Amino acid sequence: MNYRNDLLPALLGILNFALVVIVIALFYLLFGNNLVETYRNQPVPMERQAYRPGSGGNGGEVDQDKVVDGIHVQTGLIYAEGFDIVRGTCTACHSAKLVTQNRATREGWEEMIRWMQASQGLWDLGANEPAILNYLAANYAPKDIGRRASLDVEAIEWYVLDMGSE
Amino acid sequence: MPDKKVTGLHELYEKDPIKADKQLWGRTSDPVTRRGFLQKGALTALSLALGSTMVFAEHFPAGMIPAGLAYSDLPFSLPGKRAGLVVLNDKPINAETPPHLLNDPLTPNDLFFVRNNGIPPENVDVANWTITIEGESANQKKSYTLAELKAKFENVTYNLTLECGGNGRSEFNPPAKGNQWSTGAVGCAAWTGVRLKDVLKDVGVKSNAVYVAYYGKDTHLSGEAGKVVISRGVPISKAMEDESLIAWAMNGKDIPVLNGYPLRLVFGGFPASCSGKWLSKIVIRDQVHDGPKMTGQSYRVPCKPVAPGTKVPNDEMCIIEKMPVKSLITFPKTGATIKKGSQLPIQGKAWTSAASIETVDYSIDFGSTWKSCSLEVAENRYSWQPFSAKISFPEVGYYEVWVRATDAEGKAQPMLLPGWNPRGYLNNACHRIAIKVS
């Protein structure tokens, strides 16, 4: 056997490198999922202050629990059973406006949750899911408006059109 | 799983004030308007956080949006946008332009609607912005800097209308999920850039090319690094049209951050979601592109008409490749009261994916009779066309003015809603405004 002594350091180097790679790979296999999870959005308990998109209000100045005419002022969500869970869960990722501007049946809301879980990184809602679906189905159900609704005359702000010299 | 780290503002600032400042409030923006944006964003963001602890670690990955957006009871301030836009969603940002703010011949940058799927990139380095062209049907992989694009290819400007495929969704019944656009996810601007086909030809397109698709630099709401927000495209024939642009300017100015600064695609006549923003990569595909929001039910309608409420399997949904004929009354704003005997001037815009708009008519008797509007000729295909009329009313009372455009293919707008579809696309029903004559 004629080893070349000058190759030995190189071989040792490669072995060392391989060892490091294996250790890193093992670490990733063992802890990788947890690490990735910590960088994902998670629900933030409502008793903790957090940035909540679409939460409205004046930050720390407005009472975060203020409810006027059945509407939670900060989010615009209807204040009803299940409100806390919905607020804590949905606004962790997106605006409450994405809830309040939509209407769907329970089945329709469930489809949206499944879609968010399949493609948008929403976590398993566990025991909260029925409560969330109950809230959404009860408070944001479709209205039957026919093939085309009348103009919302009540919402129109009437004004006198100034046509100058005409 | 390690404990979540809760970092207070003061703690963050104590450690590294400059870094904290940048992390928390330091959004960059269009260099031209950057200063104002920073000041405004910083003020509102700071007031939001006053007296509160920020659960920073948990939310950082998702990216903080300018916190001015979190106020629903203050006049809304979207960076680079004028007050008056109706904000449908603040994360991601989606805002529409009310019809009476679309009366300009070309939509000003600060009034152009915003339809974002993710979070726009921050700290855009224009000098080093590159676009890479690759894909199965590209002869080579090739990159260009913005400066190279401008220098190497003919610079062209077209007036192109962009309309979100879901514009008008709010009227569908049963309702469709998503942003409930009323009429305002549309605008027409003068876009300056290079022809996409010139760039594609420079790279070399194989004869088996089917689709051209984009990737942009926006980031996903979930905060998952590297997750593609949206990647759509157009058939190769559309990509090769003269008016299909890689654009860096809008009405002679930088494109607003929310609309794709510094570089985007612009395709008139297709759903605006095809016109990728914050453009960094184009792929020439040998198949129909299959990126996020290209497949399933997204931007697709039933291949065959269905009854309202029908569940349609994915394989019976077809990609939208044509926006329908449509028009809006942009003057006066709905709710005008006029005196009996005076004529009401109306103005508006009409657009189509066909060659041109042929006629625009109005009705004041709920569609019983129609009279024609005078219609301007467009400078180029896919531009909207202004129209106007003077209306006399026979009697005092409540009226609705309806307008109906007809395009060169003979297609006109319906008075009721067009075919229901699961995701609520392509509502081109006649626009209506209310008028009182007293």
Structure overview:
- The complex is a heterodimer of chains A (166) and B (438).
- Chain A has helices at 8-38, 83-90, 97-100, 106-119, 128-139; strands spanning 67-68, 71-72, 159-160.
- The longest helix of chain A has 31 residues, at 8-38.
- The model of chain A is unreliable at 54-60 (pLDDT under 50).
- In chain A, helix 4 packs across helix 5.
- Helix content of chain A is 42%, strand content 4%.
- Chain B contains seven helices and 24 strands.
- Chain B has a five-stranded mixed β-sheet. In chain B, strands 6, 7, 10, 11 and 12 form a five-stranded antiparallel β-sheet that branches.
- In chain B, a hairpin with a 2-residue loop joins strand 1 (86-90) and strand 2.
- In chain B, helix 1 crosses helix 2 (17-24).
- Chain B is globular.
Uncertain stretches of 5 or more adjacent residues of chain B: 1-75
Q: What is the class of the domain at 67-139 in chain A in the CATH system?
A: Mainly Alpha
Low-confidence stretches of chain A: 54-60
N-to-C terminal Cα separation of chain A, in Å?
A: 109 Å
Number of helices of chain A: 5
Number of strands of chain B: 24
CATH class (first level) name of the largest domain in chain B: Alpha Beta
Which class do the helix and strand fractions of chain A yield?
mainly alpha
Number of helical elements of chain B: 7
Largest sheet of chain A: 2 strands, antiparallel
**Element order of chain A: H for helix, E for strand:** HEEHHHHE
